[in-house]
């Protein structure tokens, strides 16, 4: 298991954005599900601030995989969340809960994450929060 990726997810579950940022390279490429690539820690921190305003999430059932001598990693997990505030272009928020399978892929260099790509089924999320 990749220790940097584990620290990244431990920080995520603790709501510790600074801890997540400490795991990233300065020029990290953040590939967002259904979104544009954001480059750099500043853009990543802005994304986290937005997400923390709209969502409260905890990741469970975590399995971390490592390849290429620690230069690549992947994780599979379940997102357990609450939709706190309406996110632009999405259904209205009123405290709905959701549970989604998701995965992330990483490139690493010198113990830092240089790329984060996360995938989940947006249509499933929309269905869950629309029926909640």
UniProtKB/TrEMBL annotation:
This is Isopropylmalate/homocitrate/citramalate synthase. The lineage of its organism: Bacteria, Pseudomonadati, Pseudomonadota, Alphaproteobacteria, Rhodobacterales. It holds the Pfam family SnoaL_2. Residues 5-116 form the SnoaL-like domain. Coiled coil: none annotated. Signal peptide: none annotated. It comes from Ruegeria sediminis.
